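Morning, I've got a small favour to ask if you have a moment. I owe you a coffee for this, so here goes:
>
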Amino acid sequence: MHPILFRIGSITIRYYGLMYVIAITLGFVLLAREVRRRRLTTGIGDSERLMTTDDLLDLLLWTVPAAIIGARIYYVAFQWGYYGAHPFDIIKIWQGGLAIHGGVIGGGLAVYLYSRTKHVSFWGLTDSLVPSLILGQAIGRIGNLMNGDAYGLPTKLPWGIHFPANSPAGMAYPGQATHPSMIYEMILDAMIFTYLWRIRKKGYREGFSTAMYFILYSIARSIVSFTRGDSLWLGPIRAAHVISAVLVLLFGGLIWWRHLYRRTRSGTALPDRSDVPEGPPPAPPADRP
């Protein structure tokens, strides 16, 4: 494993960044497909119209920076002993150190503000988004594997990995094989994606897919965290376990409180938006002289 894919002169292409590009690109394609299927609208009153690719590009510009900033702030906050002494290292995200819980918080806040500003159904938008999100997380773990971060504890199991000595895993546990925790999570994320992609047409109420994403990913992350060698801690407890427990209780309660598990008789939760125009409203005709 090596973090650098190739170099062209002074330009360095890293697996970590490449996986993010692939994840964002593929996720955007799936999101656009799902938004079209759900016929999500933006605007209110006479200005209401179906969302377009341009609208989704705007959403991307809101959420991706917010998610990266949130992921970095979350990680740095738990590692302040180091970053307080090395503040210039805070910006070195290509070396790893992006916490998914912080990314979800930052990205989720951006999606909420976008939905409020653009008058889009928040739960409809997040239900459309979560399959892309979990698939992107699975792809991102390939970058972790090549980078040697998000690594596991030492193990003698036959599938343990010896990472290079200059990688984060190699420096933490020199000469020792470690659990491929990033591969464990990649497999579980792929399974969650398969489930979310299959239920999207089952007619559950808006918000169900979002809630199931948080519940299933929290369970998966809690399982994998038992093998992680780079866990963030809250006292004697892994931070991932605390956050995951809160999310399971919160979104499990949301499913029960809002009866999100119920399906419509027709088998689809999609509202009838056949009378909503596609694209922006036409401009008024110019006055003739």
Notes: The longest helix spans residues 53-78. The chain has nine helices and six strands. Residues 19 and 142 are 7 Å apart (CA to CA).
